[in-house]
Design goal:
Blueprint lengths: L1 H44 L6 H78 L9 E3 L2 E2 L1
Antiparallel strand pairs: 1-2
Helix pairs in contact: 1-2
Length: about 150
C-alpha cells in the first residue's frame, strides 16, 4: 500500500513537471506574440524604438521571463514536495512491515508463555489431586519437609 502511494506521488511529480513545461511554453508564446504586436504598433506609429517605447518593450520582456521563471520555480517546489511525500510513504511502509514482524514475534512469545502457564497449572492440579500437598521449607525426601 505504501509503495503504491509512493508510486502515485512519483507519477504526480512527472505530470506536474510536464504541466509546468507546457505552461512555461504557453507563457513564452503569449509573450512573443505580445512583443511582436507591440513592436508593430511602435513601427506603425512612426516613433523610433529609442526612449520610452524601447524601455516598455524591454520591461515587458523581463516581466515575461520572470513569469516563466516563477512557473518553473513553482514546479520545482511542488516536485520536491511530491518526492518527499513518496519517500515518507516508503518509510512508513517499512516501519509498518517491521512493526508487523515485531507483533508476530510478540504473539508467538505470548502463545508460548500461555502454553507454559496452562502446562504449569495442569501439573499443579495433577499434583494436588494425587494427594501431594506442597509445603514451604526444605524437602528431605519421602514427603518430609524440614
Amino acid at each position: 500500500m505504501a509503495e503504491a502511494q509512493a508510486q502515485a506521488y512519483e507519477r504526480q511529480t512527472v505530470a506536474n513537471q510536464r504541466a509546468a513545461g507546457y505552461e512555461a511554453m504557453q507563457e513564452h508564446r503569449r509573450s512573443a506574440l505580445a512583443q511582436s504586436a507591440a513592436r508593430a504598433q511602435v513601427g506603425a506609429s512612426g516613433v523610433g524604438f529609442q526612449g520610452s517605447p524601447g524601455a516598455v518593450l524591454s520591461a515587458n520582456a523581463e516581466q515575461s521571463q520572470l513569469d516563466i521563471d516563477a512557473i518553473l520555480w513553482n514546479s520545482k517546489v511542488n516536485t520536491t514536495a511530491l518526492k518527499t511525500q513518496a519517500g515518507i510513504s516508503r518509510m512508513q511502509g517499512r516501519q509498518a512491515r517491521q512493526a508487523s514482524y515485531l507483533g508476530a514475534a510478540g504473539a508467538v512469545v505470548g502463545g508460548i508463555s500461555d502454553m507454559y502457564d496452562i502446562s504449569s497449572r495442569q501439573k499443579a492440579r495433577a499434583g494436588l489431586s494425587a494427594g501431594v500437598t506442597p509445603r514451604p521449607g526444605i524437602y528431605l525426601g519421602m514427603n518430609q519437609f524440614a
